[in-house]
Design a protein that fits this description.
Layout (H helix, E strand, L loop, with lengths): L19 E7 L5 H14 L12 E6 L4 H10 L8 E4 L6 H11 L7 E7 L13 H17 L3 E7 L16 H4 L3 E7 L6 E8 L3 E8 L6 E3 L12 H12 L4 E4 L1 H8 L8 H7 L1 H6 L2 E8 L2 E8 L5 H11 L7 H4 L6 H11 L1
Parallel strand pairs: 1-5, 1-6, 2-3, 2-4, 4-5
Antiparallel strand pairs: 6-7, 7-8, 8-9, 10-12, 11-12
Length: about 350
């Protein structure tokens, strides 16, 4: 093989980003621009970002979604300093043709040093006629992806997510082409508009990863969270009901047929499929100290479930999960029992 793969192997963000086309999506006003601005500044300085190393290199930030004064205010709020490696371009940001021309001609002598190009935002590009049209999106995205790979540049498109309760790449607003023609998506998943904790969900061709983030003391920028475990954020109501029922039971153990246990757990799917459901969710159950076995007694098949409850705070946590508006989706904030009783009580005070 004569093809040289080495030039495409630049690591942009310690294993997370490489040369290619990526989508950063999130709800309106969640802080998408803050994240890409901070990442851009980190790469321009060769500094760490969210606990990961970045290579020092040139960054071009094309902004068609904010006025220059707004971007200046954002940079000031983030307390960032001017850097010759980081260029903000507003004049050429409205179309990909203009963006390519700027890179090809104005940055011709320096294009090999460009590590990151940000386009904020994708939906405002003039070439995009129909955000929901597959062909329209795919053609544009494929040309951008080809350009990124040709020049070994990482291009990040800032985009919006749907208002509906979806997560991951399914939350991206518009056509499926957004994932089909790109190297992957990064979505900011947050419980509600004023939440101070969120998750960066990476759904990339080369890896799947989640990073927990939290707002800084000023409520402006997103920082790496030291308090949250990287665990599953969403638990189905049926799994939640199983753990809740076991937690309340004096022996923390239940045994019976599929039909009997389904009635005890208020299981809402076909009772005959209970054991298959447990196997599908075995990782989540194990993370929460629930074990189960399947055996036969005569003609009757029995399922046995046990909750290994070694801490009195476990019940308080499950009470929190099921008796607050946000509880059953807030597992990542209450799963660290190692932090002890005071931590649990502080969470209960905060959300109940």
């Amino acid at each position: 093989m004569n093809h040289d793969f080495e030039y495409q192997s630049h690591d942009i963000w310690q294993g997370l980003l490489k040369p290619g086309l990526f989508i950063l999506g999130g709800p309106s006003k969640v802080g998408k621009s803050m994240i890409v601005t901070s990442l851009a500044d980190a790469i321009a300085n060769g500094a760490d970002y969210l606990g990961r190393k970045t290579p020092k290199g040139k960054v071009i930030y094309f902004d068609n979604d904010n006025y220059a004064t707004q971007t200046k205010d954002r940079i000031k709020a983030l307390d960032l300093q001017q850097n010759d490696n980081l260029t903000y371009n507003f004049d050429d940001a409205r179309s990909f043709i203009s963006i390519k021309n700027y890179l090809n001609y104005n940055q011709k002598s320096d294009i090999d040093n460009i590590r990151l190009v940000v386009i904020d935002c994708y939906a405002n590009l003039l070439e995009l006629q129909d955000i929901d049209g597959y062909t329209d999106n795919y053609t544009l995205l494929k040309s951008m992806s080809d350009y990124a790979m040709k020049h070994s540049i990482c291009i990040v498109l800032v985009h919006h997510t749907k208002k509906a309760k979806t997560s991951g790449q399914d939350a991206l607003l518009g056509s499926r082409a957004l994932t089909a023609a790109t190297s992957g998506s990064i979505t900011i998943e947050i419980e509600e508009d004023f939440s101070t904790n969120a998750t960066l969900s990476f759904n990339l061709r080369h890896l799947k990863e989640r990073i927990n983030i939290t707002k800084d003391t000023k409520g402006i920028n997103w920082l790496l969270s030291d308090d949250l475990e990287d665990v599953e954020d969403h638990i189905s109501d049926n799994v939640l009901s199983i753990i809740h029922t076991l937690a309340k039971h004096p022996t923390k153990h239940l045994e019976g047929s599929c039909q009997e246990l389904s009635a005890r757990f208020n299981y809402t799917e076909n009772p005959k499929g209970l054991y298959r459901f447990l196997k599908r969710n075995s990782d989540t159950l194990a993370d929460n100290n629930v074990t189960f076995t399947n055996s036969r007694s005569g003609q009757k098949r029995q399922i046995s479930l046990t909750l290994k409850d070694n801490d009195d705070d476990q019940w308080h946590l499950w009470h929190f999960y099921t008796h607050t508006k946000r509880g059953h989706k807030k597992v990542s904030q209450v799963s660290q029992l190692k932090k002890g009783e005071n931590y649990v009580k502080s969470l209960l005070r905060k959300y109940t």
